[in-house]
Amino acid sequence: MKRAVLGLAALGLVFGGAVAAFASPVKGGIPVLEPQGVTFSEGHYKFNRPGVNHGAFEWWGRLDDAIPADHHNVYVEVKVHGHGWVRYYGKQRRSVRLHHSNWDGAQRYTGRVKLRVCRDRGSLRPDNCAPMQSFSYNWDRG
């Protein structure tokens, strides 16, 4: 009888640890991105587990227009694997806090994402963008 109880307790601890590990979202920091005229700081991200917030890539940070006198807007672009770029604009001559979630509606979770920060210089000149940041997590391997 003792062996059966101890065996069930050990089995419960093993499965409890596995569930807790799977239930935890994957978190990380986004480095400070500073192309000419833009600063993205205090950035963090989280890969939500399947079933939580659509399994989305959730990100947040502070977007600053570093050269207010140039009258150009700033933006963050995010690309979830299999979709196009989604653009989130800041405010000219200001600093704004952004907090968004991006996901693919046809999948249970998001595994690969690209992010970049740019200064919009209009249609005649190319935008100033920071090097693209890539984030990924393989949910099948944990």
What does this entry look like structurally?
- With 142 residues, this protein is an alpha+beta fold.
- 15% of the residues lie in helices and 42% in strands.
- The protein contains one helix and nine strands; from the N terminus they run αβββββββββ.
- The protein has one helix at residues 2-23; strands at residues 26-30, 38-47, 57-65, 73-80, 85-89, 95-102, 112-120, 128-129, 133-136.
- Strands 4, 5, 7, 8 and 9 form a five-stranded antiparallel β-sheet that branches. Strands 1-2-3-6 form a four-stranded antiparallel β-sheet, with no helix packed on it.
- A hairpin with a 7-residue loop joins strand 1 and strand 2.
- The model is unreliable at 13-21 (pLDDT under 50).
User: How many helical stretches?
Assistant: 1
The count of strands amounts to 9
**SSE string:** HEEEEEEEEE
As a percent range, the share of strand residues is: 35-45%
What would you report as the Rg, rounded to the nearest angstrom? 20 Å
Largest sheet: 5 strands, antiparallel
Compute the average pLDDT: 85
What does the overall shape look like? elongated
Ends distance: 36 Å
User: Uncertain spans, ≥5 residues at pLDDT below 50?
Assistant: 13-21
Secondary structure: helix percent: 10-25%
